[in-house]
User: Fold this.
Amino acid sequence: MLASNGCTETIYHFLKVVHAASPSVNPTYFMSDFDGAQIQACHLAAADWAKLNAAKIAVILLCWWHCLHSWQQRFVISKYPEVWELLKKWIRMDVQSEFDAAWAKIQRIAPKDFVKYLRTYWMKPEVVAMWSAVHRRSRSIFEMCDTNMLVEAYHHVLKSKFLEAKRNRRLDHLLYVLVNKVSPYYESKQQRQEFGFEGEDCEVRKRKDIEKRAQDYTLADIERDGEDTFRVRSRSCPSKAYDVDVDAYHCTCIDFPLISYCKHLSAVQRLFPEKRDATAPTTPSLPTTLDLPPQDNEDSPPTLDVASVLQKGPARNPAIVLAERMEVLAARLRKCRRKELESLPALQEALDAMYLETDSSGVMPSAGYVAPNVSSGWKETEKAIVPGVKTKKRKVGDPAYGAGSSSGLKAKKGAKSRCVRWLCIASLSL
Assistant:
């Protein structure tokens, strides 16, 4: 958004333009600073989008970094270090009882002016719902964002990498970079992520971590309530227990909504394998033999053993398998000392054909430092648009209220020249 002010009307108009250009976009959350104009504009836009799309109104959240930044400016941290440490924990407490106990302690040990400031601006019910972690539960792992500084970080990447750390004042150049460089780069990166070149995503990493931590549970930690329900004791807090329903595939812990999976459910499935088999997704079994049409040759076998050909386990994407083998082959070719290989021509032809079949968008090279106005292909445009170098010395002083130092030096120089001229005339006359 390009605007000279940040009033509610300007931001609201910008959000309406965004929705008009992308009517299918229906945001679930808005992340903002504690600014009244931004919050009011987001409220209006969320109500309009929910009415048009017949969906739930988006939730407005406050950035935790900006919340803590606003709080630490209201008192001296060096004098109240205990208050500052408690505030950093308080904003992340997701249990209501712990949140209330921390607020009671803050009122006892914090300065009175700071407590009054929190009561006036931050402890209203509608405001607490925007910044407290108590109201940020039941979110998926792809919605776990508590700051809007990611946008600022992306802006830094845009300026330093794609715009090559050069000053830009042309909107057409910015649009050209966004359309022809930024968008293809992230599309290619998404494709690399899907094929496994960029590593595992956050959901897969979280699932592996859950299965690793679930190995610590034993049968003594699990109590069976019914045929499909269990009570699993918490490892971090033994006084707590969570309800696990294997049939509904649900757990009452706060980590379950992240990826609809948690260590308690994993422990139940591991220690009660019959429940894991019952809840596992069913897949059609492969036949052990495959009937073939009758052959003229009696010596030919009538069946083919498929089990000896197919590997056990779920079928993998052939493109991912090929990509992994190409990575191994690339490492071997770098170490190979032979100049000629018999299979290189055929491999080169196959790679050329594959380049034509796949997407042509390439990955951008690593960023490099380019000095300003060097190696530019727009010399003619640069000469026509960029003004020449100023050689005239800038005047010092305010011309509205005085002539400045330059006029005084000029007058002094003129007086000296006149004095020399009169001396010369006087000497000639004598």
Q: What stands out?
A: Residues 149-195 form one domain. The chain has 17 helices and eight strands. The CA atoms of residues 39 and 216 lie 45 Å apart.
